[in-house]
Amino acid sequence: MKYTPLLWIGAVPVFLVMQIYFLGRKMSTPEAMIRPTPNGLSNQQRETISRYNEWLASANLELRTTFQFGAIQVAVFQQNDQPRFFSFLFHQRVTFSAESYLEDLTILDTSNSGSLGLFPRPGAYVQSFPNISAQETWQRHLEGEAHLTKKFGFHWVPIKHPYEELVVEAMRVRMKFNRSQSFWPFRVLYRYFVTRHRIANRTIMQQFP
User: What DSSP string describes 177-189?
Assistant: First the structure.
């Protein structure tokens, strides 16, 4: 009897869990993952963003920073002085993310990547709408923020910290919570294959009626 196929079947989950484990350790020191981009964005990245210039201006979104996070190149826009951000993420493809922060690092995160929810934590609200446009991502985000404000009485006020500091601090809190859970890499693996599909296309209003 040949056991090779069974060995492969057993080895794949182990390999994935190990990958998640090392990724989790790396994300636990997020300041080491953020690198400045002295030369800024590439010509192709600038060209991609330029297609949205008219919409960005109409939404009062202004470029605040660019940096590299791991393998992802990020361009972050902020709406006036509000704690509300819109990001272009350049990796295997271009995806969009909208975020709103409270002073205590409560966050609403809306994305079109389809990979949100792998590392949840208390005070982190997520919406995932795979493959929708930048404009739709922003609109869904504003709708979700308005619902959280009405339901929980959140007050989104200007935050003095630079965006990178917010990301680093929020990531530390997120990873500390996740790594404190037993068998946490297996939980992340389950969320990747099961949970993220369940929350896809579910608005904040549907998640917290």
Answer: HHHTSTTHHHHHH
DSSP 87-153: EEEESSSEEEEEEEE-TT--EEEEESSS-TTSS--TTEEEEE-TT--HHHHHHHHHHHHHHHHHHH-
Give the residue from 186, 172, 204 showing the smallest Cα distance to 25. Answer: 172
Three-state SS for 28?
coil
**pTM of the predicted protein model:** 0.88
Q: Which residues of 146-185 are buried (b: 16+ CB within 10 A; e: fewer)?
A: ebbeeeeebebeebeeebbebbbebbbbbbebbeeeeebb
State yes or no: pLDDT of 8 exceeds 70.
no
Among 30, 29, 20, 108, which residue's Cα sits nearest to residue 74?
30
> Burial of 71 by CB count in 10 Å (0-12 exposed, 13-18 middle, 19+ buried)?
exposed
User: What is the residue extent of each domain of the chain?
Assistant: 35-207
pLDDT at 96 over 90: yes
How many residues are there in the chain? 209
Confidence at residue 1, expressed as pLDDT on a 0 to 100 scale: 44
26-40 pLDDT, tens digit per residue, is 888 888 888 888 778
